[in-house]
Every structure is written in structure tokens, then in C-alpha cells.
Specification:
Elements lengths: L1 H13 L3 E2 H8 L3 H14 L2 E6 L2 E6 L8 H15 L1
Antiparallel strand pairs: 1-3, 2-3
């Protein structure tokens, strides 16, 4: 969705760990609206949520995301077909 893309692009541009308030301000949105967009990205593992002192902060995760078992099986099958 467009709102998720906007949030990720903003975080890519500034490349830092941010609070919800800073992120919402940077996007020009209410914190509640930003939180709604942010939550699915955290659940997907694209953004890391961490507690620093009393504040929750967010950071983009650049590592590889674990794929489902189905995905691995598909790639293994395709590799076998290519090798045949």
C-alpha cells in the first residue's frame, strides 16, 4: 500500500532509529495513523521495534526475511528441474 511505501521510503532516506512521534511528524501524519501503518510492517519483520529507556523506537531491518517452508520447497523443486 501507498502509506507503507511512504513510511519505508522516509525511513530509508533518514536511516536512523526513530520514535513514533518523530516518524509521524516526518510523514506529516497523526501518530495514531502512523501506528496503524507501522504495525503490519513490524509484524512482517521489515521494521524492528525496540525499547530504549522509556521510549519505543523503530528501525528498518535490512536483513533477509525468513521465507515460509512452501517457498523453500518451490525453489528446491525448481533447482532439481534445472539440474535434470
Amino acid at each position: 500500500p501507498n502509506a507503507q511505501r511512504k513510511l519505508i521510503l522516509w525511513m530509508l532516506k533518514y536511516r536512523r532509529t526513530v520514535t513514533l512521534a518523530v516518524l509521524a511528524d516526518g510523514l506529516g501524519e497523526a501518530p495514531e495513523q502512523t501506528q496503524t501503518v507501522l504495525e503490519p510492517l513490524v509484524k512482517q519483520g521489515l521494521i524492528r521495534a525496540m525499547t530504549v529507556g522509556d521510549n519505543e523506537r523503530y528501525k528498518l531491518r535490512f536483513g533477509r526475511i525468513q521465507n515460509s517452508r512452501l517457498s523453500k520447497d518451490i525453489w528446491q523443486t525448481l533447482d532439481k528441474k534445472i539440474d535434470e
